[in-house]
Amino acid sequence: MTSTLVDTPHGPARAELHCAAEGRAALLLGHGAGGGIGAPDLVAATRAAVEAGVHVALVEQPYRVAGRRAPAPAQQLDTAWLAVAEDLGVRWFDGLPLVFGGRSSGARVACRTSSDGQAVAVLCLAFPVHPPGKPEKTRQPELAAVEVPTLIVQGRADPFGRPESAHHREVVLLKGDHSLKADVEGLHRTVTDWLSRILRPLEV
């Protein structure tokens, strides 16, 4: 495991690299609004990706590196994320396809930046479809704008809602809530299978 700071327009971000034996792609994972990269679902997804031959970079947004818990505005999160993706794409992952992902707020960032960052796929853990109790404030359009294969792993009892599936978007429901810690082994299996399937055509 290697950790490095990455300059962004909104201050330094931090990336923690977990290397696979033979890197066939790279997965960038972002954290939730108030949490860090040690969340159980991020840890499980990292382990799954490495076992599937995918390098992983766990990305801490600049506000977290600076010691703040309140998240930055969406535009700042997106700008910082793209800066990290560009830097890592040159320094660590040159020539490899990039998969964007994250949990909760980090999943939203991954969706919003997938096109500009030229991601080949998007992994969403506990995508917050709407604030709890406010289904009218839907974030479904952020998912709808993603044009590459997408996997959403959601807890059946997640108060942030349940995303809709689509022709290029898989939704897998696991027991538990927004934390996704009730079935980390199920998450691990789901992510391993999905990465293997969506990366296989890129290796032909």
Describe this structure in words.
By secondary structure, the protein is an alpha/beta fold. It has a single domain (2-203), classed as Rossmann fold, CATH 3.40.50.1820. Helix content is 31%, strand content 23%. The chain has six helices and eight strands; from the N terminus they run βββαβααβαβαββα. Strands 1-2-4-3-5-6-7-8 form an eight-stranded mixed beta sheet, with helices on both faces. Strand 3, helix 1 and strand 4 form a beta-alpha-beta unit. The longest helix is centred in the middle third of the chain and has 18 residues, at 74-91. The radius of gyration is 15 Å and the shape is globular.
| Total DSSP E strands | 8
General shape = globular
Main beta-sheet annotation: 8 strands, mixed
Structural class: alpha/beta
- How many discrete structural domains? 1
Low-confidence stretches: none
Question: Which CATH class is shown?
Answer: Alpha Beta
Distance between the termini: 30 Å
CATH architecture: 3-Layer(aba) Sandwich
The residue fraction in helices comes out at 25-40%
Q: For the largest beta sheet, what order do the strands appear in spatially? A: 1-2-4-3-5-6-7-8
Taking all Cα atoms into account, the compactness measure Rg is 15 Å
Tally of contiguous helical segments:
6
Order of helices and strands: EEEHEHHEHEHEEH
CATH superfamily: Alpha/Beta hydrolase fold, catalytic domain
| Average pLDDT, all residues | 95
Residue share in β-strands? 15-25%
User: CATH topology, which one?
Assistant: Rossmann fold
